[in-house]
Amino acid sequence: MELTEKKVAAVRASFTIGRIAGVRIGVHWSVLFIFALIVWGLAQGRFPDAYPGHPPLLYWAAGLVTALVFFGSLLAHELAHAVVARRNGVEVDDIVLWLLGGAARLHSEADSPSAEVRIAGVGPLVSLVLGGFFALGAWLLAVVSAHEVLVEAVVWLAAINVLLGVFNAVPAAPLDGGRLLRALLWWRTGDRLKATAGATGAGRVFGWLLVAAGLLLFLRAGSYGGLWLALVGWFLVAAATVEGRQAQLRGVLAGVPVRHAMTARPVTVPAAMSVARFLADPRYRYRHSAFPAVEEDTSGGEDGGEDGAGRPVGLMPLDRALAVPEARRPSVLVGEVMVPLAEVTVVGPDDPLADLLPRMESGAEHRVLVVEHGRLVGVVSSSDISRTVTWLMSSAPRRDQGKDPGEERRWRPR
Q1: Residue 79 is part of which domain span?
Q2: What pTM was computed for the model?
Q3: Cβ atoms within 10 Å of 375's Cβ, excluding its own
Q4: Which ranges does the record mark as transmembrane (predicted)?
């Protein structure tokens, strides 16, 4: 599955395990639950039911290794999305493994239906290929009379990868098949927004069908698998709904540059200022919850200020300063506790505002810094985007009169 927007807020990595092909790989805490569930289901259910009489330790070891290989398969699915996305000019934030599988978070969307097909289609294709590979492996292991539990484990991996590939190919957003459906509708209509509406509508219908089927299965047969199916359906409904709303926002913001939404000349704080002085200064205490940190020699010295023209080095949220023990605040510098620039989203003033949507998060630590020629010129927060959207929607009739639809929007919300 590929996520180009903030589909579900929970899909955020709890910790990072490293990088593969330059892509950061994260794991959400919910993976521990599903991992334990898979190991338990195999060790206490499938393996002993299929081939009883073996030591319990063998079943648990086989279940553990099989679950690890399964999550490796999920990672391969998402890495395929990421690699192909990069080859088609779409940057990748990271890959997160979580409760319902995996998600590759992309900075922006494909610029053509053909690119969309390549990015979306490669995931299910990789899963199906892996399914075929494991099926072939199971057959070869059976031919050479390998241990029956090993054969069963490989058979399970083959089946689950084929199921993963087929399920993701269902034409319903936010599944990969929904991306393929959107690409088809986009190609036929030439309108990406209408195509997204069609794909998200299909996603909601499919999700509600899964919810209904899962609840019916649970109530009639008492199967807890029905509850899991309902949970998957609910996720699809929620994700498709959020995707549809995000698509509408992208349509409203189309052609609007970042400079029209940013707060220009923001109040800055020198990285060399002490935390005690930072907290004591009224400019920082009462105005905002986070401030761009800049190099001392380009921000007016120790006093900081509102020139907003320094060289940015990070972001200083008030919460981080308050977390410093009071006795240490006079000796601890802002630069020691700030969010470093490498962890802050940085954009240019002429970048499309719509492309910033997938990267925006709520909270003081997620302000976006606007930099031009190495100098800070503005800050963008989620409230800035909300204000811009409100202005654009309220003034839409007046703005559209007499405008060429292809002309770039050159107005600024007040």
Answers
A1: 2-169
A2: 0.73
A3: 15
A4: 21-42, 57-77, 125-147, 153-175, 196-219, 225-242
